[in-house]
Design brief:
Length: about 350
Amino acid sequence: MKIRLDQVVKTFDTFRAVHGVSLDIESGQLVALLGPSGSGKTTILRMVAGLEYADGGHIYFGDQDATDIPVRDRGVGFVFQHYALFPHMTVAENIAFGMKVSKTKRSKPEIATRVDELLRLVKLEGLDDRFPGQISGGQRQRVALARALAVDPKVLLLDEPFGALDANVRRDLRRWLREIHDELGITTLFVTHDQEEALDLADRVVILDQGRIVQEGTPAEVCRAPNSAFVMQFLGDANRISATVRDGQAYIGETVVDAPTSLDGPIDIYLRPGDVDWRPEGDGIPATVIRVLDRPGGRRVLANVEGGTALEFDVAPEMAVRSGQVGKLSIKRSRLYPA
Ligand SMILES: Nc1ncnc2c1ncn2[C@@H]1O[C@H](COP(=O)(O)OP(=O)(O)OP(=O)(O)O)[C@@H](O)[C@H]1O
């Protein structure tokens, strides 16, 4: 089921939370709404669900204007971070709940068969008699997904479903959700403020700021070509160096580097940790090492460049670097934005 938002607006009292958002979600795609707290992600999701009215614009499910379709007739399944399971129902009863109250009547054996299928799908066979208090947080969210899938939704809406779980469990559930999505192909809208989660999971990422879409594209597109300093910074791991461009050359303190840009005057140079080369001596931007951080994937160095800007960059794990050392940085890749 394709979903289309056309100039959707939402105002709470006098505060406009969503400013004319237009978005196409193709049938079968998994799209992540990504943005900082308060950027309007949940409000957009709630309008798609029918839990909140749009004050302006239209939301289409396929060719049908969904504006006046009530929640229970929209064919959407939800999983929310705090959309708790019913504590006094077993796992199996929780999953069966939606089928029992649905307009589509199913016999008891039909419901039992479907519950078994879903338990297999979410890899929780054998836990059907447990109560939510007797399973882990990650397992509870898998039950919540099974419950959402039980009524064969045309659209799946997930609001920070793994938000309360620890990093390793989140990573596992992310992979698992992607596998389930690939198997079922349900159009899915996923809200998160976690960049890595959005980039790992989604076919397309929609980045929001203050109720507006600021960029959308595949994970590769938004990572390789962030269209603003905001997106560059929000996607994470961005270092910023202030510079001044004159005649195609950037002046960083006393150092001059080539700056192939049409910009002139004060600019910010943005770099990711893999975008610079470090050498103990030679040409380049002088930098003083403040700390060396050893991580499972390699070494990260925190250094100060001229003018006092702190910068983080990666070096090979075997590279000899120590605090206080002065070396030179050369820029391999960067993005330049007006300051
Ligand atoms: N019912 C409401 N009444 C008044 N203001 C609201 C209401 N719901 C949301 N808002 C405001 O609308 C803005 C967008 O909120 P929303 O929950 O959509 O953001 P979000 O991007 O999902 O944030 P978070 O990541 O913190 O959940 C916020 O400034 C919020 O305070």
